[in-house]
Amino acid sequence: MPVLSYIHQLFDAEHCQAYIHTLRWKDRPLQCPRGQSQDVGPWGTYHYRPGCKRYWCNGCQRTFNDLTHTLLHQSRRSCAYWMLATFLLCLSCSSRRIARELGVHSRTSYRWCWWLRNTAVSYETDRRLEGTVEADDLYHTAGRKGQAQGGGKKSLGRRTRGRRKKREPGRGHYDKDRPAIIAWVSRQGAVVIQATRDFTVKTVQTAANIAVQVGSRLYTDSASSYRAAKDYVHHLGIFIFCV
Ligand SMILES: [Zn+2]
């Protein structure tokens, strides 16, 4: 019997709404999600959604609430279901397990999991690192040719051909099946990893502009592509990079 299936009954709808309100507006003022106007005021509540506050926007003359332009907007299930689904997803539960725990159809939970992951990823792609950022690059051989299925070591029954070692020296390139991977790590903990075509000055500049806020302090090795990157305060750093 699913143990967690009764937990959502313990969730209080008003507490859920208050928590979502805090999460959404904690680092910015309350504003209209349509036109970003801050000329807004309270506009009652919903009888069918307890705890959900409604606001009026003087900019677009329409109402909105804490769930407008989010996944939970107009969902027939209450916030408690969504919170429990998110919680279980963060614990790496499968969508089948989530369906069982929540008491919804497996197709519903699969869709929810997909939406939650997609939203989390799209939120991250808009965010740029700031402050002190460390960067390093590596080159990964594309494809899994010659490797055991599912990873790990498998006896080949012969001596390995050592093809990886036969690669040309120097930096990799997308056309040689060895794209560059650049990792930007903020000292605050956030990480951005980009797979790029090559490692030229132009590519690194574009990658930096996407990943890092202008004016940030950049700690890198002595590669000239990093040093040529404009708009950043550059430092030469020796650091141990762990993936
Ligand atoms: Zn508006």
Give a brief description:
This protein has 243 residues and is of the alpha/beta class. 28% of the residues lie in helices and 18% in strands.
End-to-end separation: 39 Å
Q: Number of helical segments? A: 6
Which structural class should the secondary elements be placed in?
alpha/beta
The main pleated sheet reads as: 5 strands, mixed
Mean pLDDT: 84
The share of residues in helices is: 25-40%
Based on CA atoms alone, the radius of gyration comes out at: 24 Å
Query: Which stretches are poorly predicted, pLDDT < 50 over at least 5 residues?
Result: none
**Count the strands?**
8
Are any ligands bound, and if so which?
zinc ion
Q: Strand share of the residues?
A: 15-25%
Order of helices and strands: HEEEHHHEEEHEHE
Tell the overall outline.
flat
Q: Going across the major beta sheet, what is the strand order?
A: 6-5-4-7-8
Would you kindly provide a written description of the structure presented here, covering whatever features stand out?
The chain is α/β, with parallel strands linked by helices and 243 residues long. Helices cover 28% and strands 18% of the residues. The chain has helices at residues 13-25, 79-90, 95-102, 106-126, 201-211, 224-227, and strands spanning 40-45, 53-57, 62-65, 132-139, 180-186, 191-196, 217-220, 233-236. Strand 7 (217-220), helix 6 (224-227) and strand 8 form a beta-alpha-beta unit. The longest helix is centred in the middle third of the chain and has 21 residues, at 106-126. The radius of gyration is 24 Å and the shape is flat. The two termini are 39 Å apart. Zinc ion is lined by residues 32, 34-35, 37, 57, 59-60, 62.
